[in-house]
Amino acid sequence: MPIRPSVIALVVALANVAPMLRGEERPNVANVDFERHVSVLFRRLGCNAGACHGSFEGQGGFRLSLFGQSPANDFTAITGDIKTRRVVVDAPDESLILAKPSQRVDHEGGLRLPKDSWEYAIIRRWIADGARYTANRGHVHRLVVEPASVRLAPGDSLPLSVVAQFADGTSETTTAFSEFRPTDETVVTVDADGRVAAVGPGYTSIIASYRGMFVHASIVVPFPPADGPSPHLSPANLIDEEIDGRLDLLSLASSPSSSDAEFLRRATLDVLGTLPNVGDVRDFLADDDLDKRARATDRLLAHPRRATVWAAKMCDVTACNVDTMESPAALRPKRAKMWHDWFRHRFAENVRYDEIARAVLCATSRGGETIERWVEDEIRRENGALVSFESDYCQRRELDLYWRRIGADGPTPIEDFAELTASAFLGLRLHCARCHHHPYDRWSQRDFAGFAQILSRVRFDSSTELRSEINRQLEIRRQNRGSGVTYPPLPRLQEVYLSASRRPLVDAAAEASALPTAPGGPVLDDSSDARNSFTDWLVQPNNPYFAKSFVNRIWAKYFGAGLVEPVDDMSASNPSRHPSLLDRLAAEFVRCGYDIAHIERLILNSNAYQRSTRSVANNGADSRAFSHASVRPLPAETLIDALNTALETMDDFGPDVPGGSTAYDVAPNRLNGTDLDTVFRFLGRPDRRSLCDCDRALGPSIRQPIYLMSDPRVIAKISQGRLARLLAEGSDNRTILTELYLATLSRFPDEDELAYLDSQVSAASDRSAGFTDVLWGIINTREFSTNH
User: For residue 273, which of 238, 310, 302 has the smallest C-alpha distance?
Assistant: First the structure.
């Protein structure tokens, strides 16, 4: 028997209803207001959820705005004409808005509003007072929670208080009308009244929300004290100052530094996306200089592969997707490589991040060139791409490829560009506000439409100037036909340019009149190009999103997760797990001139990054405070490249990629003519089809062990390359085993390992087969397949 929608609605709202059935103390409300008190109760009760009256068609002929985004419409729906009116001012208890949810009249949603509850009393008072509505009384200027920060012992509890400061200058305690949730229920729980109870040790936040505004209270529950002293190393920089301070608040011990071998392997995997070579491992471990880790960090950050790894990352972030590129299809992999090379060139030159962002966001195809010069260069570039992967596109000032996208039905909708741009450069997920008020953030449809309008004058097609120039080129060819003058083929050209008129919004059509507006920021000057005004606002030192979102991405690259996670969800309802550290890193990023390598160097030189994964004292249960390093699975490209580095082998990535490429050189999001595309997907490489950076599989997975144990390519590689060379050189068993350890695990084997593996090889009927089995065993260890 199918489940009825009304039953689904009841289940969805059950968690909100349960507190109402307990009859808590009634809030002291002097004057009941529709926006401030009544409409917010509909949300707490689940009435305006998408599975109930907030759905597009409503329920039972009664429709509310989704999540209460439009109190005015809700008021009209409740008090409408004589046929739809759900309030009876002269007899409030007879009002359907009370009678149905209290089940005195049949209600498919079940009991939502017991007659003896304070919520019932609030709505009844509003009806008895005339069921009036004063517009904009509920607009919240600021939301405050007290206490904003608290330290609790396990088993302790305390109430939170929420105060709303309204736009009209009045304030009111809105605790009873607010919603609460913890970000980590293993640390604390919170009930509907805002009472927090400590459950276990850790750091978390309680999110309080009221009328679309969010605020959080920080909660610290210390760990049981360690036995004996456990001092931290002296802070290396601001990162350690912040993290050590948090560890002290939590009474957590910190693990000692990783070994030299562990540090070199970890840093090389993170910076270069592959393993260190055998010679580098030997040299580093033999170096007695106390400053060798800092010098190794500088060498890694100067290595050309760092730029390649970052280019691949930025292709993910900016959704370099061959399926959205212009025709001809044969050139799409070449365009993807141009995209990749453009970013690689800038990271190799350590270009400031604000300059990179501006060159993407404000790009046009001509970038200030004359139409004649641009057409000449583009003809040469397009024709060259037909025969080669080599291109000078990376020398272009701007990345117009970001805007050269084709949708399934023609030009890519402006709303898609708005979603992608917000995710990539602000760390914001605005997609919900595309259709309705965001349920977990401040953004409305008007906010989304205002942001989309910034981009609505961008076109990708044939401009009037381009058509005129193409006609001129054709006329030149016609006039010189038969004269012996040869011209390169004339490809079909389109360009990214700025139109005098805006493209209409599709999904947010009702808000199409919105002015170009930065998210949470000012209305922007659109007299020339609103993208320039937007980028000026974006790169200001006090911008709340730009610097934070990118240092958060850098942090995630080196620690496996961001200080805000997901990294592109920097919403008011998703606070950082270390707000003061994120603030200081962002301020440092601004201070150093948006120097990406500077932030990477701070991280790599910090004690926090260099700690061992081995737990000590009381920090074994900690997974969020950086008391010890975490064991992380290798990203798909890193695993493939590390395997090839260790085994001295290479992969053929097919016709869409130049020969000799590594996994991080692969620019297209999908590959034709090779089953390595399946391997990429299997290992978690994103397909870049979503409008956010959210598709890469980062957590532990059974897929990597399956790949290493059984993939035919891996099995074949083991007996080739390095092992075949060592056997051909006639090296003895221990020499071969030592090099295999240095190549795969970046360390020397200990004597027990050497003795055991030597005995295994010596006992094998075939020496080559014995070494093949040993090497297969090494690469299938957790020590090889993880970063630790």
Answer: 310
Tens-digit pLDDT profile for residues 320-351: 999 999 999 999 999 999 999 999 999 999 99
Q: What is the H or E stretch that residue 220 is in? A: strand 213-221
What is the rounded average pLDDT of the residues 30-58? 84
Quote the CA–CA distance of 524 and 608 in Å, as a whole number: 41
Angle among Cα 423, 672, 702 to the nearest 5 degrees reads: 65
Closest by CA to 360, choosing from 345, 391, 339, 375, is: 339
Asked whether the beta carbons of 220 and 214 are under 8 A apart, the reply is no
Read off the amino acid at residue 146: E
Task: Band the pLDDT of 84: cuts 50, 70, 90.
Answer: low
Torsion over CA: 730, 731, 733, 738 (sign)? negative
**pTM (whole model) above 0.85:** yes
Tell me how far CA of residue 175 lies from CA of 28, 145, 182, in angstroms: 11, 9, 15
Give me the phi and psi of 214, to 5 degrees please.
-130, 145
Q: How far apart are CA 100 and CA 98, in angstroms?
A: 6
Cα 276 to Cα 255: distance, rounded to the nearest angstrom? 25
Q: How far apart are CA 473 and CA 482, in angstroms?
A: 16
Chain centroid to CA 679: how far? Answer: 23
The span from the CA of 378 to the CA of 366, in Å, is 10
598: number of Cβ within 10 Å: 15
Q: What is the dihedral of CA 298, 299, 302, 307, to 10 degrees?
A: -110
- Joined together, the tokens standing for residue 636 give 């798909």
Note the pLDDT tens digit of each residue in 349-391: 999 999 999 999 999 999 989 999 999 999 999 999 999 999 9
Taking the C-alpha atoms of residue 541 and residue 349, their distance in angstroms, rounded to an integer, is 23
CA–CA separation, 389 vs 337, rounded Å? 7
pLDDT band at 511 (very low <50, low <70, confident <90, very high): low
**DSSP class of residue 170?**
-
